[in-house]
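Let's sit down with a protein and look at its sequence and fold side by side. Which protein we use is up to you, so please pick one and set it down. Label the sequence line and the structure token line clearly, so we can match residues to local backbone shapes. Go ahead whenever you are ready, and we will take it from there:

***
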Amino acid sequence: MYKRILVCLENSGTDAHIIEHVGPLARLCGASLLLIHVADGWAARNIRQLDLRESEEMREDREYLDRVAAGLVAGGVPAEALLATGDPATEISAAAERERCDLIAMATHGHRLIGDVIHGSVANGVRHKSMVPVLLVRAPGKAGP
């Protein structure tokens, strides 16, 4: 069914929830995982335009992705890591197409109304930009109204 799954990570506690879902799915389907994190600090947002070097935050993000990928590989799931920069929804959608992924998996925070306006919704952006199916897993958190 799925051969290559793009897994969006944000280097936070919500990542464990999406990994818990896609690890078994990948095993079941014989799929490989491509872990992506879109760095969003000042240097990451301007790295191309200003020809900047990778920031400490970006190095930490890359190390994090590599650790998660290594853990999955050690558990028998083929996994690679990709650190991207720019607008998260755009970069995730482009990576899914470029890397020939047939599923995008993301954890969501479940913001509502004003929370989406303040925090934005990467999941919503990906849903609108990508033609690849999107699996959204709600991370546990505060109960909504």
Remarks:
- The CA atoms of residues 57 and 94 lie 23 Å apart.
- The chain has a mean pLDDT of 84.
